[in-house]
């Protein structure tokens, strides 16, 4: 695919305007930075319906759309943290939990009171030693934005020869331009055939399309010293 075939700044800007834009971003991103989405990359309506019957609740439209589109794509959902399968969805203290940190240190969900919304806000919860202090806190304003940001960051965190980490404390290499915001907890940057994601104070992940592009990014970083 030619670089001009996927305009990631425009796709990211559109993704925050509607859930349809978010899914178009995931489609274009998956194809450009990995493999195009296929018909078997999502869960079926029957599997999602079974989850609804088991839980005794209705899943939000945006959640169903995300699961049907790319819920089985581990590179977009579970490289670091884990998108729960439909039969793993569960309720915890007033929220439907759909995602878990890889060591169970945090969970993400949708408040039960918001399940009637098509594209509800999401919440996050840390696993604390003092359980009485655990609370659901606001995460993203829309599930579709949370899902699109998840897909991008999980791809950057994929165990792959073209993925790596940069030093958190150091300045980013020159030649990167900041991309439109997506996810309150992330910042995104683009370079020649390179994508960089900054997760707050946690990590700086990079994905390149070629070994040469990754090496060029390293050289830019060394040149800034």
Describe the protein.
- With 225 residues, the protein is of the alpha+beta class.
- It has a domain at 151-223: TATA-Binding Protein (2-Layer Sandwich).
- Helix content is 33%, strand content 21%.
- It has 7 helices and 11 strands.
- It has helices at 8-15, 19-33, 45-55, 61-70, 74-77, 143-156, 211-223, and strands spanning 82-83, 90-92, 95-100, 106-111, 123-126, 137-138, 163-166, 177-178, 186-191, 194-199, 203-208.
- Strands 1, 2, 3, 4, 5 and 6 form a 6-stranded antiparallel beta sheet that branches. A 5-stranded antiparallel beta sheet has the order 7-11-10-9-8.
- The longest helix has 15 residues, at 19-33.
- The chain is globular, with a radius of gyration of 18 Å.
Assign an overall shape.
globular
- Strand proportion: 15-25%
Give the helix level as a range of percent. 25-40%
Number of helical segments with 4 or more residues: 7
How would you classify the helix and strand content by structural class?
alpha+beta
CATH topology of the domain at 151-223: TATA-Binding Protein
Tell me the name of the CATH class of the domain at 151-223.
Alpha Beta
Rg measurement, Å: 18 Å
Taking the alpha carbons of the first and last residues, their distance comes to: 34 Å
By CATH, the architecture of the domain at 151-223 is named 2-Layer Sandwich
pLDDT < 50 runs, ≥5 residues: none
Query: Mean pLDDT, rounded to whole units?
Result: 93
For the secondary structure, the number of strands is 11
The description of the largest β-sheet is:
6 strands, antiparallel
Order of helices and strands: HHHHHEEEEEEHEEEEEH
